[in-house]
Design the sequence.
């Protein structure tokens, strides 16, 4: 997109106004200067956006910008809170969706906080990398990254506290499964006034009953992808109380399936013929044409420790063009229209777009720091830069950035 000179001048003025929002978080004048240098470097056109090229382009010593990340006194937690409050001030929506996902950064060596050989989405294979879990926010045609945290591997890091101290990782930062980090990010954002209606995540989170129940207990809907091996029933099987016990040893205390009750089945094998009718939905437009999926939507009882859980929605979605099939579970109310469920389910592309913009536009993956504090501050400053980039993109494009709510039969519906 060609940007006129007047638009560039307006962007510079907007950046000045925008960064004033963070004065109470970054109080020292020198640090406010470093904040502007870092953000200008990230949203600018440098081919490499790590500390050294950003500093050199701005005519400052790289060490001063490194110390801004690693040593200077400013409140990165307050900056994160301010990002979240700006999103609520300007983009609050009763139907806002929380986007949960992780991203990875290939790194050499073994000194960067959290690095280890593990599956790396950035390279598509097992690799030496750092993994971070993130929370995004989307409402209407707006989306932003509003939080993120480091995944600390259990054995190689949490099990070696001396290694953690050498990387500057506080003793209170310990191993948590990624789905628990995601719940903690939701708690932190909601505690700061961010409001969501629903949560979307891929099967790396949706497969865990603890994650699903955690979202439900926070009063939010979830629409999460699950593996095709997910077990459950489309009709609730009869469950009986523990039988009277007159034998020796510990008596049974858990309910069990009634004799003759149907066994739980994999979602991929629920219907060999018949079943709910397929409905066709237009999801969005792309450069390659419209994306159309057809879906079956039915009430479902997931298998939890061998017993039926609470009734929820099962959504089986099939790509019309290539036949790809996805499975989703949702605790949305029983009268929720299918197109709303599909809208939330397929909103997950937004977090993928955020990561794409973060790595392709502002250098989210260009960090060369090793210590924990510097890494956390880089993630926070990247959220600052991404929010500004998103709002400026909306201003310059002067048109909606995304498609409206999916509709049945391939037709568009109002957002």
Sequence:
């Amino acid at each position: 997109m060609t940007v006129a000179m007047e638009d560039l001048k307006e962007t510079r003025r907007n950046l000045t106004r925008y960064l004033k929002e963070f004065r109470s978080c970054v109080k020292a004048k020198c640090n406010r200067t470093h904040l502007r240098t870092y953000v200008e470097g990230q949203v600018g056109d440098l081919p490499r956006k790590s500390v050294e090229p950003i500093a050199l382009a701005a005519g400052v010593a790289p060490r001063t910008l490194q110390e801004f990340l690693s040593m200077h006194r400013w409140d990165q937690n307050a900056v994160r809170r301010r990002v979240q409050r700006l999103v609520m001030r300007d983009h609050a929506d009763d139907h806002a969706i929380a986007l949960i996902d992780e991203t990875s950064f290939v790194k050499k060596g073994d000194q960067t906080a959290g690095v280890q050989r593990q599956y790396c989405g950035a390279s598509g294979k097992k690799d030496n990398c750092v993994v971070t879990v993130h929370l995004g926010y989307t409402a209407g045609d707006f989306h932003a990254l509003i939080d993120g945290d480091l995944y600390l591997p259990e054995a190689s890091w949490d099990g070696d506290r001396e290694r953690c101290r050498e990387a500057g990782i506080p003793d209170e930062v310990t191993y948590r499964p990624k789905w628990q980090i995601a719940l903690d990010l939701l708690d932190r954002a909601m505690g700061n006034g961010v409001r969501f209606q629903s949560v979307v995540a891929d099967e790396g989170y949706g497969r865990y009953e603890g994650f699903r129940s955690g979202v439900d207990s926070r009063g939010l809907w979830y629409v999460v992808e699950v593996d095709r091996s997910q077990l459950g029933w489309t009709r609730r099987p009869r469950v009986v109380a523990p039988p009277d016990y007159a034998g020796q040893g510990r008596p049974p205390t858990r309910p069990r399936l009634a004799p003759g009750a149907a066994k739980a089945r994999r979602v991929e094998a629920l219907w060999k013929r018949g079943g709910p009718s397929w409905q066709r939905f237009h999801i969005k437009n792309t450069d390659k044409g419209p994306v159309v999926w057809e879906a079956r939507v039915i009430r479902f009882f997931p298998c939890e420790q061998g017993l039926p859980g609470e009734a929820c929605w099962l959504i089986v979605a099939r790509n019309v063009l290539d036949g790809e099939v996805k499975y989703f579970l949702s605790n949305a109310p029983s009268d929720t229209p299918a197109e709303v469920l599909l809208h939330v389910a397929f909103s997950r592309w937004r977090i993928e777009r955020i990561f794409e913009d973060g790595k392709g536009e502002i250098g989210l993956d260009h960090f060369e720091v090793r210590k924990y504090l510097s890494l956390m501050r880089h993630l926070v400053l990247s959220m600052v830069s991404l929010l500004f980039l998103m709002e400026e993109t909306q201003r310059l494009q002067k048109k909606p950035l995304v498609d409206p709510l999916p509709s049945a039969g391939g037709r568009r519906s109002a957002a």
Q: What stands out?
A: The longest strand covers residues 289-304. The longest helix spans residues 372-397.
